[in-house]
Amino acid sequence: MSIEVLGVAKRFGDFTALHEVDLKVETGELVALLGPSGSGKTTLLRVIAGLEQPDAGDVLFDGASAVARGARDRGVGFVFQHYALFRHMTVFDNVAFGLRVRPRGERPGAAEIRSRVAALLRLVQIDRLAARYPAELSGGQRQRVALARALAIEPKVLLLDEPFGALDAQVRKDLRRWLRRLHDEMHMTSVFVTHDQEEALELADRVAVMGQGRVEQIDTPDAIYDRPANPFVYQFLGNVNRLPCVVVGDRVELSGIFVDRLDRPPNGEGDAVLFVRPSEIDLLPGSAGLDGDAVVRFVAFTGPTVRLEVAPANGGPLIEVEVPKQAYRALDLRVGSRVFLRARRAALFPPMP
Amino acid sequence: MDSVTAFQYAEPEAFLSPRLRAAAVRWLLVGTALAFLALFLALPLAAVFVEALRQGFDAYLAAIVEPDAAAAIRLTVLVAAVAVPLNVVFGVIAAWAIAKFDFPGRSLLITLIDLPFSVSPVISGLVFVLLFGLQGWLGPWLQAHDVQIIFAVPGIVLATVFVTFPFVARELIPLMQEQGTLEEEAAVVLGAGGWQVFRRVTLPNIKWGLLYGVLLCNARAMGEFGAVSVVSGHIRGLTNTMPLHVEILYNEYNFVASFAVASLLALLALVTLVAKSLVEWRLGETRGASQPDGAP
Predict the structure, then answer these.
(1) pTM
(2) Sign of the CA dihedral A231, A232, A233, A239?
(3) B interface mutation test: which of A101, A138, A156 has the most B CBs within 10 A?
(4) B-chain residues within 8 Å CB-CB of A49?
(5) Element (H or E) spanning B92, and its range?
(6) What does the pLDDT profile of chain B (296 residues) look like in tens digits?
(7) Which residue of A210, A346, B194, B224 shows the fewest CB atoms closer than 10 Å?
């Protein structure tokens, strides 16, 4: 089932949570809504689910407007951030809930409910916990119960609000891959909300980056990381150096770093900001006759890579550089060494007000 | 050296170690509290039963089954049977509205719910006399239509409902606020209708708090004296509730009968206390288990 969000706006009192947002999710796609807190991503998810009524705009499921239908009649699966399990019910009763509240004519019999719930619990690998109460489960187990409960009504659309937010790093990684497999096997259209860019990039077919109630960019993880549409997306997706510079003619004047390639050519002359990712900068040693024009100020070993802070010799902000450990060893650098910096690629944006 | 040693021995700390002193303070405080409770609570309670049984069990029983006493008991049970369910319904609706929705006038509603707690029960009774009494605003109209509210059962019920209104709502509001609306939202998304959400999700989550409120509400409904006294008219066998009947018997120097009926109210209080502790214990358990992010 495809989902189309057309010009949806939502205000809470004086706060505008969504400014006329458009979004299209194709059938079978897994889309991430990525953004900082307060960017409107959860509100957008709740509008799609029918838990919030938009002030303007429309939500289409397979081309048909769903706004007139409440959350009860949309038949979407929704996994809440803190799971919102029914605390007075066992795992089994939680999962069976969606089947038991169906109108009498559509309600499956007790035996069928039992077998379907058992199948779902096996699917999410917690069948041995059927008799437990939510308070007796770990975070990862609750997450699986919440998912099984949402899947029980056989939704065509699955919406997840920060599905991995409250879990340990290792559990998150496992559940992430498992959720991706589940999405593919169940042939659902899924949208999930996250503030974790790694999660969004790894899991989603497409990522919608949101900021201040707007969709800033929507694209594949690869494209969104390599070609951010604006400074906000650039900054939100991974580390980035922001270097003030001046454009003269079609040349960028900047001290301490050479730029090989500009993704976005200068748009007129004057002040600009160069965006360079730390991992896209190469370090070159200064030679005997030619001293480097930047000085290493700080070195930190972070697992497979080494993070350096380098200061241009003639002033300017510190530049962060990330190089593989081997490359760092080969250069034989230490704090105080002089080096050249070369950006393999960078993007130029007008200065921010 | 000698003088210093002598001086140290003179210090009171030398006899009583800090640990012993802490124990002494503890026992002094506990003892005072217990003595106070015995003097002001246990002793009067015991006196009620001693006085009631002073002329033997037969006299006690006779005082209770005597027609006027039996009528008072019936009326008290009837009033509670009407007032408590009414206040359960009002209380749940008001608590639901206040805890789960934000609307203009919300804080005014919270204040209004507390009103019966903050005014004297006599005033509560008088309000109804002023409204429905013969000289009251609606009195002439009621008389013309031959409806009697004051000095009759409806007035007693109204006054009791008014006085006991806050108990259920007051107990439920913080509980429902703490629980939020997420579980209800989850139920709606899964296809549950309004009534199903209430019966299957909200009600089970508030049931112990609700029971607690009902117990307190019932105890007050059966024991209310002031407001009921103003509107009742004290007609024996007709508009006397148990507390009013106790007073009348006492004023007639019929101490055994008076204390016998009073002992029933005292028993009600004891049963309520025991039930209340049981519910409190359950309430503590469910609240303890309800942390959304509780440790695994």
Answers:
(1) 0.78
(2) positive
(3) A101
(4) 189
(5) helix B67-100
(6) 444 444 555 555 556 788 888 888 999 999 999 999 999 888 988 988 888 888 888 888 888 888 888 899 999 999 999 999 999 999 999 998 898 888 888 889 888 888 888 888 888 888 888 888 877 788 788 888 887 888 888 889 999 999 999 999 999 999 998 888 899 999 999 999 889 999 999 999 998 889 889 989 998 998 888 888 888 888 877 888 899 999 999 999 888 888 988 999 888 888 888 888 888 887 776 654 444 433 33
(7) B194
